[in-house]
Amino acid sequence: MATPGTAIPFRPETEGVTGQLVDVLLVLALLLSACLGAVWFAKKRGWLDKWIGAAATGRPSQASLRVEQVLRLSPRTTLYQVKDADRGYLIVESTATARIIPLDAVDDGDE
């Protein structure tokens, strides 16, 4: 038991706010380096290309649609001719709606 007149032994605080800030920055640097290491490992294994997909490589996939022609019908309406691997479509886009018409349904007028 403490005798009267002696000081209460408090825990000494040698670190201040700067010590806590340094600890937080060290943990942040450790987490950042772990993330960079994981990305480097995934790139080395070829997993990163699969995760990112064809958009990052600049190569379109084989089954992609391509716009062949764009025709402005009015200030608010545009007609697109789109081709897939084996089919074609007409897309009429307006400010309120969009309509897709397969080219098989369009009459050529050659008959």
Automatic annotation (TrEMBL):
UniProt superkingdom: Bacteria
Keywords from UniProt, A to Z, are:
Membrane, Transmembrane, Transmembrane helix
Q: Which residues cross the membrane?
A: 20-42
State what protein this is by name.
Flagellar biosynthetic protein FliO
